[in-house]
Amino acid sequence: MDEQSVIEARDFTKKFGSFTAVDSISFTVAKGEIFGFLGANGAGKTTAMKMLTGLLTPTSGQARVAGFDVWHEADKIKRNIGYMSQKFSLYNDLTVVENMTLFGGIYGMSMPEIKDKAAQVIDKLAIKSFKDRLVASLPLGFKQKLAFSVAIFHRPQIVFLDEPTGGVDPVTRRQFWEMIYAAAENGITPFVTTHYMDEAEYCHRVSVMVEGKIMALDTPAALKARYDCKNMGEVFLKLARNPG
Amino acid sequence: MRVIKFLLRKEFKQIFRNKAMLPIIFVMPVVQLLILVNAATFEIKNIDLAILDRDHSPASRQLTNKLLSMGYYRLRARVASLKEGQLLMDQNKIDLLLQFPPGFAAGLQRDDRATVMLDISAIDGSAASIIYYYTNTIILDFNTGIMQRWHNLPEQPGLPLTVESRFWYNEELDYKNYITPGLVVILVTMVGMFLTAMNVVREKEIGTIEQLNVTPITKTQFIVSKLLPFWIIGMFEMAFGLGVGKLIFDFPVVGSVPLLFAFAAIYLVVVLALGLLISTVTHTQQQAMLVSWFFVVIFILMSGLFTAVENMPEWAQKITAFNPVTYFMQLIRMVLLKGSQLQHVARHFLVISAMAVVSISLAVFTYRKRS
Lengths: 244, 371
Hints:
By secondary structure, chain A is an alpha/beta fold. Chain A contains nine helices and ten strands.
C-alpha cells in the first residue's frame, strides 16, 4: 500500500448464498480525495461499504482501510473511520449536544475536547438555538448536516457516507457538499455513495458499479471524454444499460 | 470504563425519556399486586347454593342452617324440583345443589341411615373439589353430632386415634402470604425480560445499532451498558414490589431480606441475558415481544406460582428444572415464610449462578458487531 492511499481493495467479494452482491472489485482511494461510489439501487454499493467499515464480513479478497486489514484489524479500522448510514442514525431521543458527547466519548475524546468541538460544530451549523433540543425536533436538512458533523467529530482518516443527501432539498445538498469539501481539505477522506449524477460531478474520482462489478473508475472529466457524454448522467446510463 | 460511562448515561437518559417507562416501573407493580393477589385466590368464599328440600323436616332444616351459618355459602334459591335446580346450574347461577330426599329425617331416625345428594358444578375442577371437601366436612360434623345425641354417647367420644394437624409456615393457610411473594418474582421477571428484549431490537429497527457497530466499542462495553440499567431497575422493582406487597398484604418476613436480594441480583442476570438474547436474534420489536411472551408464559405457568411443581407430571417436573423462575419462586417463599438460610437454599444459588454463566455467555456469543 503506497503512502498516500487510505483505502486499497483487491478482488473484494461478498456472496449471499448463490448471489454475488460484490463481485471481485479492486480500487484504491488516495488520501484527501473525494471518492464517489456510484451505482443503481442494488448494485452493491452499500454492501461494499459495509465490508469496508467492518459491519459485514467479506467472502473473499483483500482490503486495507486506513492502513489496517479488514479481516484481522477491524477494531483498528473502526477507530480511524467515521460512518454516516443511509438511515438517519443519530439518537432522536437525545439532544444535539448529548449525541455529540456520546460519540465523542465512545471515540475516547476528553470532555474539554468534546465541549470545544461541539461549540465549533454548533457555531458552524448555526444551530445554537437547537443545541439542547431533542434531535427528533430538528428539520431534516439540519439532521443530515448534524449526522455528518458527528461522523467526523473525532477527526477520522476516512468518512464513509452512504447516500447522505437522500430526501434533502437542493440548497441543503449544496451546503452539504461544501462540508464534504471542507472535510477533505482538513485531511479527512470522504468516500461517498450516491445516485445523484450531479453530485458525481463534484467528486475527484468516481467508480461506477453495475451488478456488483466496478465498470469504470476515473475522474468525471475523463469518463465523460471516454464515453463521449455531456454529463455523468449519460455516462451512468450507458454503463448501466450495457453492462460488460 | 470511560466508554461504558458514556454509554450508560445515554441508556438512562433514553429510558427515562420514554414516557411509558415510569408507569411500567411504578404503576404496573401496584396494579398487578392489588388485582392479582386478590384475584388469584384459592379460597372458595361465596359458594352459590340452591336447596331442594323434599323432606321439610327439622333435621333437613338443621343441616341447612348449619351450612348457611358457616359463611361460605350464599343461598340463592330454594327450589321445588330437580329440573328447576338443574336449570339454575345450567345458567351458572349456582355452584352447588343440595337435595334432601323425602324421608331423610325418617331414615335417620329409623335405621340411622339417610342420604343427601350433592350436585356440584365442576366447570372449575379445583373449585369443585374444594366445595365438595368443605360441604362434606360440614355434613360429617353434623353426622357426628346426631350420632352423639341419639345414641347418648358422651360429648367427647374416646376414639383411640385422633388427627390434629397444623400447617407449618403459613398457619392459617393464608394464600396471600404465598401468592404475594410469587407475584413479586413474576413482576421482576417480566420487567427485566421485556425491557431488555425490546431495547436492542429497537436500536436495530431505528438503525442506530449500525452507528454503534462502526465505532470501536467492544462487545463487553456494549452488553454491560445494555444490561446494567435494567439490572438496577429490576433490583429497584424487587424492593418496590416487596415494599408495596408488605404494606398492603402484610405477609410475614421470617428470613433474611439481604439473602433474597443477593439471589435476585444473580437471577436478574439470567433474565436480562435471556432478554438480550431474544433481542439479538429477532429483527423487530414485534418479534421480540412475541418471543419473550412465549417464554414468560411458559416460565410463569411452570414456576409453581399457582400449581405446585410436585403435582406436575414427571416430564414437566424435568422441564421446570431448567426454569429459572421456579428456583426464585421456591426461594422467595422459603426465605420469607420459613426463614430459610443460605445453607438451606445453597442449591438454588448454585443452579441460578450456573444459569447466569450459561445465559450471559450465550448472549455475548450471539451478539455480533459484524454480520
